[in-house]
């Protein structure tokens, strides 16, 4: 059967602005929300939208990401017809190329797209937190008889200069696109979500690949080229929570957003976000535990105080430890008499008894994967 | 352990726990926040390297099938071997009730398996153990049948099978007792023997009018077979009554036992529901408890177990209670010494109290 829509998730980015958090893993594999990894969001959105053939393009530090994706069964994407396809760069008879940009990554996998022969290709990035039904966007694309449809979201005017801004006519047709404009003409930002009619995309990717001056990027090269050719580009306006978690601050903030009394989106309802599960028991709350305004996952032992924080699986928080406004990633141990505040503590860390990890809003403290922080280290820093 | 096949028997007398077994066998009673009791026997088998498991279904089998499905969550969805359901035979003559009949009518499956040994376990016992030690013991003692037991750590009002063993482990007496005393050697309903011995025992006993595997097949043959007892020294709970279920549930609130049962050895697998982490809101106050994913907590919970997807609203007090999947406790409700089966709603301001040695049980889907 002909696949009507194929999704391609760009998951090869390093995410260098996440600093030490992406030293060992690719950005889409960064843990989020007490349970998930960032890539769970586009993957679950695909599965929930009825898109069952998904290519994941990987490049930077792919081991953990590949391992996490497995055969796609966590997202019910282990299928006879379709499923998850992991697409790293590969060698050809004339040599090997890395993916030189988002457009080049798709170009190098045109053979994969041709084999599936979809009518439409959905291009997604693996670094945003949001829940969205792509089938509505696909419907809009068909209704508009568009050649490309770009997902957009309204952002505050003051922030518009940080984004790629779309200007549309009243019918939603894109007339103009500006990358990070100083004086934006609208406040509709591109979400990095594109639906293309396959043959149309193919044509532009092939032309772009031949252009040695191109940086092979969708936002910088392909979309402006399409607009210059007066192609039928439409915007699809998304209303809801959407967060780019490209920086330490925004990653921390997106985690904190989940702690509101009414979270900005439901992780657990009909549009469930799926993730690869460890087999761990329900978490244990000790006799003196005090946990408020927080998320806590399976396998953790909480004996101390947790406030306004996100606790991943297998975390141990000792008696008299205090964790405030922080994110604690899987299997980290937090010892007695510690204080962790405005921090992101990565996987498998040890915060030894009496140690302190203190950041502040705007300067979130990060403890990299596998580190041990001792009380002595604090004294040294202080001295 | 490639030479061992597993059989899980889900038939067990449930008259002392009937409130929780109206629609399900004991083996599929929810336990410890996200498991069902069968998960322990099945996970121990899988973790011991057994890859061919037959499940002897009871008559009330819907909940078991819904829970185990393809066996994928236990890594038992395989092209070869894996999980096999063995349904009870449909006979309307009402003769020979008991688990032996189910074994007998499924001997075909056992005949066609290639493993040398068979490990028979019951789905109503909670433990996390490595059966490969049992196999080694079985081979070293040259036993015909090995029975696994543990030494009871306290009196237990439920019935059980008590063994007496010689110093070398040879079983000298097997007795079915109405209640268990502390320090007695109690069978964990786990038997290891060669497939041939199993087939002979079942065929012989059933064809001579037997009903029960232990009473009619094993106990009548003690003279012809060398039966040895293997002592398991980890945590064990036999779920035979409401009291023993409640007690075992409170046991897993001891961090030591929680740790031993779930984390120290191998994982215990269960059906994955993929729920979000627990949301503790500003007014939550939770101590001494196990809380499973998908819960939203705004009230006070002490010394209790909350299963997946439970909602505890503001002003609610829960103490010494077991609240199963998707229950809702509305504002200012109170539950003390209570077991709520799945999907129970306790509406605003309603107070429910049981006694510490006699918990109040609220049946599935009831709104109070």
Helix proportion of residues of chain B, in percent?
Answer: 10-25%
CATH-assigned fold name of the largest domain in chain B: Spore Coat Polysaccharide Biosynthesis Protein SpsA, Chain A
Report the biggest beta sheet of chain B as strand number plus sense, adding barrel if it closes: 9 strands, mixed
Say how many strands of chain B there are: 28
Oligomeric status: heterodimer
Distance between the termini of chain B: 50 Å
- Cα radius of gyration of chain A in angstroms: 22 Å
| Count of alpha and pi helical runs of chain B | 9
**In DSSP terms, counting alpha (H) and pi (I) runs of 4 or more, how many helices of chain A?**
9
Q: Please name the two chains that share the biggest interface, counting residues whose Cβ lies under 8 Å from a Cβ on the partner chain.
A: A-B, 39 and 40 residues
Helix/strand layout:
The complex is a heterodimer of chains A (383) and B (368).
Chain A lengths: L4 E6 L20 E2 L3 E2 L2 H9 L4 E5 L4 H8 L13 E5 L3 E2 L2 E2 L5 H6 L2 H7 L3 E6 L2 E3 L3 H10 L4 E7 L9 E5 L5 E6 L8 E10 H13 L7 H11 L4 E5 L4 E3 L3 H10 L25 E3 L4 E3 L1 E3 L4 E2 L2 E3 L2 E2 L4 E2 L4 E3 L2 E2 L4 E2 L4 E3 L1 E3 L4 E2 L4 E3 L6 E3 L4 E2 L1 H8 L1
Parallel strand pairs in A: 1-4, 1-8, 4-5, 10-14, 16-19, 17-20, 18-21, 19-22, 20-23, 21-24, 22-25, 23-26, 24-27, 25-28, 26-29, 27-30, 28-31
Antiparallel strand pairs in A: 2-3, 6-7, 8-13, 9-15, 10-13, 11-12, 11-13
Chain B lengths: L3 E6 L20 E2 L3 E2 L1 H10 L4 E5 L5 H7 L13 E5 L12 H7 L1 H6 L4 E6 L2 E2 L5 H10 L3 E7 L8 E6 L5 E7 L7 E10 H13 L5 H6 L8 E5 L5 E2 L3 H10 L3 H10 L13 E3 L4 E3 L1 E3 L4 E2 L2 E3 L2 E2 L4 E2 L4 E3 L2 E2 L4 E2 L4 E3 L1 E3 L4 E2 L4 E3 L6 E3 L6
Parallel strand pairs in B: 1-4, 1-6, 4-5, 8-12, 14-17, 15-18, 16-19, 17-20, 18-21, 19-22, 20-23, 21-24, 22-25, 23-26, 24-27, 25-28
Antiparallel strand pairs in B: 2-3, 6-11, 7-13, 8-11, 9-10, 9-11
Helix pairs in contact in B: 3-6
